[in-house]
Amino acid sequence: MPEEEKQKKLSACSRHRYLYIPPNTPENFWEVGFPSTQTCIERGYIKEEKSPQGRSRRRQPFNALFSPKRSQKQS
């Protein structure tokens, strides 16, 4: 078969490839394993705050609410 005919036949057979182009996989999709914390911060998976919010404190500590001495006094 001459080269020109091969090209015509090949373009006729492979026409479906041009109708649908599959999307590319996301960046770092095929990496195996867990990335380091620094890598996650660089990629934007982890947002690191410069000044984190302070934790709220309880008005009464838990041991005052649930102490066994208090339950004995009520009896």
From TrEMBL:
Origin organism lineage: Eukaryota, Metazoa, Chordata, Craniata, Vertebrata
Annotated GO MF terms: damaged DNA binding
Record-annotated DNA endonuclease activator Ctp1 C-terminal domain positions: 3-38
Protein name per Swiss-Prot or TrEMBL: DNA endonuclease activator Ctp1 C-terminal domain-containing protein
InterPro entries in UniProt: Ctp1_C, RBBP8-like
This protein's record includes keyword Magnesium: no
An example Gene Ontology CC term for this record: nucleus
Annotated compartments: Nucleus
